[in-house]
Amino acid sequence: MLKKQFKEKDVERMRNLIKGKSGERTVSGVGYTKQTDFHDEGDVWEEGGRTWTIKNGIKQNITKLDQARKASTLPMFCPSCNKLTYENRDKNVFKIHNKCLNCVIDMEHELHKAGIWEEYKNKINNADIDGLIEMYKNWMFEQINEENNSFITERGNKEKWVGKVDKKRAMQAMEDGIKYLQSLKK
């Protein structure tokens, strides 16, 4: 004798399980039905304020940092030679050349054979100096435009300082520094 009676939906569920129809519905629902959109592999769409895509059959959220993550991630295989990459030796080289260390060595060897190694080396050196000049300009403009009317000491006291940065002198120093950095170019 059963202490609990089965409801109609429980009996219907058991029938469906016995017949092998485990996904069948046991109760008919009424009310709101959500409109479903079907997306294919590679589609990009926006839903609920987020951007989504389908990669390898899986729905994935596209974040703002995906580009940075992709740029900083070392792939398992080199795109040039399709050989395995190694974290300890290929990571820094891959950020610059998008190749493994062996491919970069081969490329530089070909540059030596073609006689354009010095030009290539100077191009890299000049690009580094241009980056330094840009960082130096930004730092100098920050220093020149900084408000330094007061200073907080180690004890937490606020001290008023009199005097400003001499902008003409600072600009002249910046120009001299840029000229020196430009002279380092080859």
List low-confidence stretches. Answer: none
Strand order of the largest sheet: 1-2-3
Helix content: 40-55%
* Count of extended strands: 5
Q: Roughly how many Å is the radius of gyration? A: 33 Å
Pairing-aware structural class of the strands and helices? mainly alpha
* Global outline: flat
User: What separation lies between the terminal Cα atoms?
Assistant: 98 Å
For the sheet with most strands, the description reads: 3 strands, antiparallel
Percent strand: 5-15%
The overall pLDDT average reads 87
Brief characterization of the structure:
Helix content is 48%, strand content 11%. By secondary structure, it is mainly alpha-helical. The strands form 2 sheets. It has a 3-stranded antiparallel sheet with strand order 1-2-3, with no helix packed on it. The protein has a two-stranded antiparallel ribbon with strand order 4-5.
